[in-house]
Structure formats: structure tokens, C-alpha cells
Specification:
The chain is mainly α and 101 residues long. Helices cover 80% and strands 0% of the residues.
Length: 101
């Protein structure tokens, strides 16, 4: 795997950079080949159509995860605001019970 411990400019770092460039080119070539097959051939388009319901379900599931994360984030922010208010009240010596209406 890619090792970040090499000192820039050394022979090991240069060889590691060349390896990363070659790996990136290979991954790009494979991705391009798959995309070309799926979109430019009839059998690829049939395969894509057969995957469509599964992809739609995955998109719905990911959308649900996003909504859940949004709710959790909102709850965490509300809790943080309440905690911040409490710390400010305690540090100034004012609490809600000591305030007269």
C-alpha cells in the first residue's frame, strides 16, 4: 500500500510516486472500460437496466441514512447549545432559578 514515510526526493519516494501513478492509471482504465461497456453496448445497457431497481433501492436507503444523520446532528447541536448556555450561566453566577420574573 502507499507508504507516506518516504522522504520527498529520495529514490524510494520517486518509485512510490511512479507506483501510485501507474495504479491510478489502471483504476481509471478499468472504470472507463466498465462505463463504456455499460453505456455503449446493448448487453451493457441490458445489464444496467437489470441493476436499476437495486440502484434505486440503494439510493432510497442512503437517503434514509442521510435523514437519520441530519436528525442526530440536530439533536447533538441542541444538546451542545443547552450545555453552552448552562456553562455560561454557571460561570456568570446566574442560573435560571436565580432569575426573578
Amino acid at each position: 500500500m502507499y507508504d507516506l514515510r518516504f522522504t520527498p526526493g529520495t529514490e524510494d519516494a520517486v518509485n512510490n510516486d511512479k507506483l501510485m501513478i501507474a495504479m491510478s492509471a489502471a483504476v481509471g482504465a478499468v472504470a472507463g472500460g466498465v462505463a463504456g461497456y455499460l453505456f455503449l453496448t446493448e448487453s451493457g445497457r441490458r445489464s444496467l437496466r437489470s441493476f436499476q431497481p437495486m440502484l434505486d433501492e440503494l439510493a432510497r436507503d442512503l437517503g434514509g441514512v442521510g435523514q437519520s444523520l441530519h436528525g442526530v446532528t440536530g439533536a447533538a447541536l441542541s444538546g451542545w447549545r443547552l450545555f453552552d448556555e448552562f456553562v455560561n450561566e454557571v460561570s456568570t453566577g446566574r442560573t435560571r432559578s436565580s432569575v426573578t420574573h
